[in-house]
Each structure stands twice: as C-alpha cells, then as structure tokens.
Amino acid sequence: MANKKDYYDVLGVSRNVDEAELKKAYRRYAMKYHPDRNQGNVKAEDKFKEAKEAYDVLSNSQKRAAYDQFGHAGVDNSAAGHGGFSGAGAGFGDIFGDVFGDIFGGGQGGTRANQGVDLRYNLELPLEQAIAGTTVKIRIPKMVACETCKGSGAKKGSMPVDCSTCGGVGQVRMQQGFFSVQQTCPQCRGAGKIITDPCSTCRGQGRVQDTKTISVKVPEGVDNGDRIRLTGEGEVAENNGPSGDLYVHISVKEHPIFARDDTDLYCEVPISFTTAALGGELEVPTLDGKVKLKIPLETQSGKLFRLRSKGVRSVRSSTKGDLLCRVIIETPVKLDRNQKELLHQFEQSILNQGTKNSPQANSWMDGVKRFFDSMAG
User: Considering the entire predicted model, what is its pTM?
Assistant: First the structure.
C-alpha cells in the first residue's frame, strides 16, 4: 500500500478536479498506455492499470470521499467490505465503457443512448459535374424520429420510467472474483428507461421508417472513390439518441472524349496523314471550350501534347492539372482507284529516296537483320 502513488498524481489532476476534467485526463492516459497500442510493453501496461485504478476510485463520489479522508486505506477497506471494487483487477469491459463510452454507448455516470446507424448512398455523376462541382438532391429511406411521441416511444401524456434492474443507469456490473465487468442492462438494453405505455404510432420504438430528401453539395474536383460525409443524416437512434451519419460515395461515369487520371485529363485526337507529315492546326475540346492545337511537321502517331492547366482542379487543393492530347494518325479507308494510284506513286518516290524519308522503318529493319544474323551465327 505504501508503494502506491497518489491517485490524483497518477492522472495529473488537482484534488478539486471536476468530473469532466477527470474523465478527459483518464482518457488521455488510457489511450496512451492501452495494451493494444503497446503490445509487449510491461511498463505501459502497469501505467494503464494504475490509471484505471485511479479513475475507478476518483470517478465514484463515495470512493473519492473515502480516499480523500483516509487515502488508499479507505478505499481498500471499502472494497474488501463490499466486494464491489478492486483496482488491480479492473476489467476491460470497464475500460471500453469509460474511454469510449461516447462512441459505443457504454460508460458510467448516467445513461447514454446508442448512436444511430450510419448509411451509405452511391452517387454516380457525369465527369463534367464531378469536375465542376454541383448540388444534387437524393432520396434516402431511413428510420426517423416518430412525430407523435417526439422520439420518446411513450404514449402522449406519459413518460418512460427508470429501469428497476439498473436503476436508470443503463449498465449493470458483474463481479467475478477480482474481475469487474460492466455490461449493457438486459432489461432496458442500455436505455435506462422502461416504456410502460408505448406510443401507438411507433409501438414504443421512438422512430419510424420514412424517406427523406437530402441536398448534397458536391465539391469541385471529386473523383471515383471519394466520400462525402453528412453528419447526422443517418438513421435516428433508439431512445432519442444521436443520429448516425450519411456517407455519399462518388462514382464518375465514363466520358466519350476524356479519361481522367487524378488531376490530369487525357484525350485521343485523330489526325490525317497529311497533317501529320506537313503540320497544321486543329481545334480540340477542353472543359473551358475549344482551343487551337498546333501540329508540327513530321509528327509521329502517339505523340503527346500537353495543354497546361486545362485539366481538373484538385478537391484537396487549388492545384489544377493538365490536358494531354495524344494524336493518332488515321489511315484512310475506302479509297477509290485514283487515290490508290496516287499512294503507289508516293510510296515509290519514298523508296527512291532510300532511308531519308523513313528513318524509323529502316532502323527497325536493320535491327531485324542483326537479330537473324546472330541467330544464324
């Protein structure tokens, strides 16, 4: 007993600390030294148990009063006499109730309603709307608070009463030897209240199924896989608890012209053989309208042209990507006899020039010849 630290010093709080600050200090220590975050660290585990023991005493008004008056002897004797507390044997059920009660609905010091269920909605958008941003109205089927009883579940003119099993706390404590485990009350299922005269509309549930129209503001630049969170737009919880959230998952439709890669846009631009050989100028589409693209002399198929800042603005920053245009030389089709003859004449004139007009083709043929020579040798 003499080796035990002062509980207030353990949690780093003053002796007149209020309940809220005490809980905040305990959460900070519990999160820092939790065994799941410090696996194999015996020192951290000891600190965790120490903080848990201190909080179990100081968060209980009777135990805290006894501790303030008699020190560790006061609470140790109290525990021995009543069998309701043992700091060294604190159960992990209490840990999650104390530290994460606001999240999971557990905890001490009063009833906490469960949070409503989160909902998911898949929203498909055209590329233009995803890039520019938009506002979309969607209809969501979900559980909403009953208008008749205002979510209480009780018939108008009546009120829920405290649960006789847990005394209105919503939690019951089970003691097994040195281990103390806190569980949701099986009678009221954590509500702390029992409805004796239920509402006829919702049959005591406090909520009914309905469909709600919600306006979703889609920011500029969203992409496939992005998610928009609408706080409180999920299902309302039982017992007038806080509503869950709605998560809108974005998927973008394929576009007939553009393909997107992060903040860059790509498009393929077919050009004629003549334009590729002699150069020229053509119009290409962008999100801001048409722009002129200059094609230099002797452009090869697959050449990539970059138009700066003609892409997508990032949803997470002001950075704007580029538009990359890949030119594809289109081979003429459905030629008449005269056109074919002209092409034969043109080909012959190319051949007469040797390697001058077709350096890539001749380089490739030389590579093929060397390959077969090496195979034969």
Answer: 0.58
